[in-house]
Amino acid sequence: MRKLPVFTLGVEEEYQIIDPETRDLRSHLSKIVDGAKVFLNEQVKAEMHQSVVEVGTNICNNVKEANDELVFLRRQIVDLAQKQNLIVGGAGTHPFSKWQDQPITDDPRYHNIVNELQDAARSNLIFGMHCHVGIENREIGLQLMNQACYFLPHIFALSTNSPFWEGRQTGYKSFRTKVFDKFPRTGLPEYFDHVASYDNYLETLVKTNCIDNPKKIWWDLRLHPFYNTIEFRICDMSLTVEETMCIVAIIQAIVAKLYKLTMQNTSFNIYRLALIKENKFRAARYGIDNHMIDFGLQKEVETKCLIVELLDFIDDVVDELGSREQISYVHQIMKNGTGADKQLAVFERTGDLRSVVDFITGEFTKGL
Fold it and tell me: What does the alpha-carbon distance between residue 164 and residue 174 come to, in Å, rounded to a whole number?
């Protein structure tokens, strides 16, 4: 039996920097980023708003390596924040901070984005998790991207962790995606039949000054323009490392299973984006509760049942990837709820968004 390739991983997380007294987001004035660069180099970056820190793992051969790197990165940022009398949290949005109060990082890249997109950029005070899966052959990578699009709402539902926005309960399990929708070139990826068509699309946008570099394609899933990876960008930032790694392991297994089918000349169905958008909306609105659509059966099915079916679909590649332990954590998510469900439970119990922030920052350090 042919062995699977090594589907390398790279994980990026965006952290909230929080004032321990007010529980509001607070600028770290680049002190955390500058301090981290001394020993983390390019693994830590400033983001558009000064209250955000982005970290990224090195290229990891498996989920165990990625887990160890994320634990290390979270520890380092927590330690550096403590030295500035600040704390760190992980969620897709802050429960009550207002974007109008958060300064923009003084960097030409961000000034250019704000100049172009105005309040759509200034209000983009959101936090996500991105997962890169290594694919050496870009043509196959594009095929896998087209097929994996179907599973984006399932992954997204498990990651939902942004029910509040500017002090209001939004009614969504992920309001982050609604905030990001204001940006151009976001949402579900377009279908391309060949890499040449995809590259021509990118070249046309650059040539016509729509974008100055191909990284400004901010889709939920993209064939990376510079790296040999497929990048999943749909997820909210998770509360804990365990949740992040569960979702990362599922993403890797989806890619591996679709690759295996492709190598057997058996491709997964490709559905219209208009249909997949219906499931994405349901995931944003309800998380893992309620129903999504099974397009094969053409009927509504409980989201948790579809996730169990997804686990069955990827089961035959999990052991070879060495990720069964991480993927098994999905049962805890389905039992105890996503980050959004947990945030809402704290608010229902306390009626206090400051208590929700305390919960978010407390969960961030679990397992470190």
Answer: 8
